[in-house]
Specification:
The complex is a heterodimer. Chain A is α/β, with parallel strands linked by helices. Chain A is built from 13 helices and 12 strands. Chain B folds into 3 domains: 95 residues; 94 residues; 153 residues, Leucine-rich Repeat Variant (Alpha Horseshoe), CATH 1.25.10. Chain B is extended, with a radius of gyration of 35 Å. Classes of the chains: A alpha/beta, B mainly alpha. The interface between A and B is large, with 55 and 52 residues.
């Protein structure tokens, strides 16, 4: 009996050790690749090139899609922010997804909108579009507003926007996000610069705008969030975008282009069925389907990331809203893996089947489960007195210092290239957050992820939910 | 002995010896730790220990790098914030407001007052670079004699030596920077220097060299079209288009030459755009020949070009081709008929609008009908009342001046 217990214990230890080691090596690899990616970007970055692009008459057009649901508090500033985008050929499509507040009325009043007969073609099935508005003011000639029946998901609203889009590329964002004025120029650049592949999506870095200063929807002063919860999210975003996604982008293995900011090839997006309105992680789901479509139809594709911060979003600053968001994300991940499991370790799907899916499965989906199991085992062994405390603390210290190192490297890449934030104190303040993240933020994330998986397994009904925005600069 | 008696020195010696002692004790403690703890620990713990040290050292180095980078950036910003307004004032006073400019004296005969510029810290490379940057900035915003005067200033201050050094650098980004500077200032570079770079393996350098060649070559600025092996990326086309269309005194050739003979599809596609920009109607026969190409993307580009040139001569051929074209080409044909707007193929457009199954075809047929003034000249109430709801909406969409696309 003892030998069986020993054998199980040995297998368990070895598996966990191997799991941890591979995860840490993956992070080290991402840190290295992201360094190469960020350096490559910095070498090519040139304001003059953006000027050339901004003044060109031969660039592809872009449709900017901004779904809005009960965004009355911020809608005017946010649409104004979108109207300041610097690009020679674009349109802005605001999709009022059946808001119950005065979002639409505000838009009509502020932008002199008039109902028009619009040749709306249903390529992707959505809830009906009731009316389409255009502005009578030539200053807002790029603005189109769709008023549709609420589809209970951002995906449905985005699909309606894709149906109405006139151009070959569309940028999907949240209407509460504030975009940098050069966002379209920055995101189309990888599409135009790609030599052999077809770029089906491009993403940019998102940051938390809670403590930044904005003037009529334009970011004027970048600051790390003052409150702890949004600050944790800022650190997480830097790590995820600058280190994670840039690293994956370097080897053309980007697992996801964020729903907050992503430029997509409209033809591929439509052909693979657009956003899935039943998914809780519709951005990641679309990306997986687009990749799958590309493999099925032999399209040599690429997904690229830009390390420059192009979008500021309002992060949840209360635990309740944060919980809803993270549970939804975790459920979306579980849905995604379940729906596309046939791609898992399937060589037919190349990098997505052999790299992205296994990574998502083992180190994104299973990580909270492994951590929870580890914690339970740890407590159990502690109660039974089997813990070698000296070694256990060393291992804990190892994970702790490693996680701080990875976060600090992400901040370093960000700082070396862009030198965001005005003072060094703000940067230091952000660096110090990494010390608390492991002990406060991470356990919360693990807990919410497990709740998301539980909801997925039990099929609990959850709606899109209002994120209860406070609006930038109005707190 | 007298030195040892010095109390300051003896205190220093004591301090050093105490440091040495501490260091020695630390080394001993580390050795003890290595013998007792590290070597006796299981392999996993040994790995963990190594990683802890790596993580702590890397984190500390990262902090130092962040602080160092910020400090250097802060210093650079401060220096430039002081220097750039001085440069700008000098450029305005000594070049832009030069009295001879008002008297229409040729720039080559104008004597610039260099002395105030020599007060700048031009012995520093960063200052020279800042000055070059400001000269280029001003030059991009002015034309004519002032631009030439700025160029003269650049040469008189020997700033071109720095640029030429960069052009010989092993680093491609330095070469690109040099080419951009030389191009911005219309400085001569020999063909033998640039031409090899137009086929360089590095995409950025290749693109910069092509722009430089077009802008600066005194012989045949479009010669590289003949030797371009790699495809011109869309990005290259955007930059080249800007360079070609904004360069003064450039001899514009007949682009039909490459439309007929080039084996590089991207060069042909790019030439079609230039044909449209320069309204080269004499290229129409070459474009009509291109309609026979098997590449339907290129064919669509050719049809688009014919439409933009309003080549009435092409209308019948386009209509004849229509039925066996893929949808992108059919859309381009409908758009072309709208742009040409001769009114001769209204019936064809009407048939497509009423009977095509594809939504985009109907929409573009309707747009072209509107452009052919069919709607205003022949209101066709009967037809309007008989079309389906969807077609009516399409028609109203196309007729609404508020809707652009």
């Amino acid at each position: 009996m003892q030998s069986i217990v020993n054998a199980i214990s040995h297998i368990y230890q070895s598996t966990i050790f191997l799991y941890g080691l591979v995860l840490l090596l993956v992070y080290a690899m991402l840190a290295f690749f992201s360094m190469l990616g960020v350096r490559q970007y910095a070498r090519q970055d040139n304001d003059y090139q953006l000027d050339v692009l901004a003044g060109s008459g031969i660039v592809p057009g872009i449709s900017v899609l901004a779904p809005a649901y009960n965004e009355g508090l911020t809608i005017i500033d946010n649409v104004r922010s979108l109207l300041t985008l610097n690009y020679p050929r674009f349109e802005i499509i605001v999709i009022n997804d059946g808001s119950t507040d005065n979002t639409l009325e505000q838009l009509i009043r502020e932008f002199s909108l008039q109902e028009v007969d619009f040749a709306y073609h249903i390529k992707l099935k959505t809830q009906p579009v009731k009316r389409v508005y255009k502005s009578t003011n030539p200053a807002y000639s790029t603005l189109v507003v769709l008023d549709k029946v609420n589809g209970k998901s951002k995906a449905d609203a985005s699909n309606a926007g894709i149906n109405a889009a006139s151009f070959d590329y569309f940028l999907c964002t949240d209407v509460d996000c504030v975009l940098d004025k050069n966002t379209l120029l920055e995101l189309i650049r990888p599409v135009l610069q790609e030599e052999k592949k077809r770029v089906i999506a491009t993403g940019g870095t998102l940051r938390i705008g809670n403590s930044c200063e904005f003037d009529e929807g334009v970011m004027t002063r970048m600051r790390p969030p003052r409150e702890l919860l949004p600050r944790f999210q800022e650190v997480e975003y830097i790590r995820s975008f600058v280190l994670g996604k840039m690293g994956w982008s370097y080897i053309n293995c980007v697992p996801n282009v964020s729903g907050g900011l992503g430029l997509f090839d409209k033809e591929v997006a439509i052909r693979c069925g657009g956003y899935d309105h039943t998914s809780f992680g519709e951005d990641m789901e679309l990306m997986s389907r687009m990749c799958r479509y590309a493999y099925d139809y032999n399209i040599d594709y690429a997904i690229r990331y830009v390390p420059k911060t192009l979008c500021w979003t309002e992060a949840p600053n209360t635990l309740e809203i944060f919980k809803r968001q993270r549970i939804r994300w975790a459920r979306g991940l579980a849905q995604l893996i379940h729906a596309h499991f046939h791609m898992f370790l399937n060589p037919k799907y190349g990098k997505i089947g052999m790299v992205i899916f296994p990574y998502n499965f083992f180190f994104e989906l299973l990580a909270p489960v492994v951590e929870m199991l580890g914690l339970i085992t740890y407590l159990l062994l502690a109660l039974l007195g089997y813990i070698h405390w000296h070694n256990a603390l060393l291992l804990l210290l190892f994970v702790y210092t490693y996680s701080i190192m990875i976060t600090t490297i992400a901040i370093l890449w960000d700082q070396l290239t862009f030198r965001y934030y005005k003072t060094w104190k703000e940067v230091l303040f952000l660096c110090m957050t990494a010390f608390l993240e492991f002990v406060i933020y991470h356990p919360i994330i693990v807990y919410f992820s497990l709740r998301g998986y539980y909801n997925f397994l039990t099929g609990k009904r959850v709606t899109w939910g209002n994120m209860q925005r406070q609006g930038f600069g109005k707190k | 002995m007298s030195q040892i008696d010095n109390p300051t020195l003896s205190a220093s010696v004591e301090t050093v010896s105490s440091y040495l002692e501490t260091a020695f004790t630390s080394v001993k403690a580390a050795t003890r730790f290595l013998e007792n703890t590290f070597l006796n620990a299981p392999i996993t713990i040994q790995i963990a220990m190594v990683f802890i040290i790596i993580a702590i050292v890397t984190t500390a180095l990262a902090y130092i790098s962040i602080l160092r980078n910020r400090y250097r950036g802060y210093r650079t910003d401060k220096k430039l914030a002081r220097l750039c307004p001085r440069i700008d004032n000098l450029l305005i006073d000594e070049v832009l407001s030069h009295p001879s400019l008002q008297q229409h004296v040729p720039p080559d005969e104008i004597q610039l007052n260099i002395a105030p510029f020599e007060q700048l810290p031009l012995h520093r490379r960063w200052a020279r670079q800042a000055l070059t940057g400001r000269i280029i900035h001003f030059r991009r915003n002015v034309r004519g004699n002032i631009g030439l005067l700025l160029r003269n200033l650049y040469m008189q201050l020997d700033l071109d030596n720095d640029t030429l050094k960069k052009l010989k650098s092993r680093h491609w980004e330095k070469k690109v920077q040099a080419l951009t500077e030389l191009t911005s200032l219309d400085m001569f570079i020999s063909d033998v220097t640039i031409l090899p770079m137009t086929n360089d393996r590095n995409r950025e350098l290749r693109a910069a060299a092509r722009h430089a060649y077009i802008k600066l070559s005194k012989n045949e600025p479009f010669k590289f079209f003949d030797i371009a092996k790699e495809p011109l990326l869309m990005w290259d086309q955007v930059e080249l288009f800007r360079t070609i269309t904004s360069t003064e005194n450039i001899a514009i050739p007949n682009f039909a030459r490459w439309i007929i003979y080039s084996g590089n599809k991207s060069v042909i596609s790019f030439c079609l755009k230039l044909v449209v920009y320069y309204n080269q109607h004499n290229a129409v026969p070459a474009i009509l020949r291109l309609l026979e190409t098997k590449d339907h993307y290129l064919r669509a580009d050719a049809i688009n070009c014919l439409g933009k040139l309003r080549a009435r001569i092409a209308e019948d051929k386009l209509v004849a081709l229509y039925s066996h074209q893929p949808i992108p080409c059919q859309i381009e044909i409908l758009k072309a008929l709208g742009r040409i707007g001769s009114g001769e193929h209204v019936e064809f457009l009407k048939t497509e609008f009423l009977h095509a199954t594809d939504f985009d075809l109907r929409k573009h047929a309707a747009k072209s009908l509107v452009r052919n003034q069919w709607v205003s000249d022949h209101p066709g109430d009967e037809l309007l009342s008989s079309v389906s709801q969807e077609n009516l909406r399409i028609l109203r969409h196309c007729m609404n001046p508020l809707i652009k696309y």
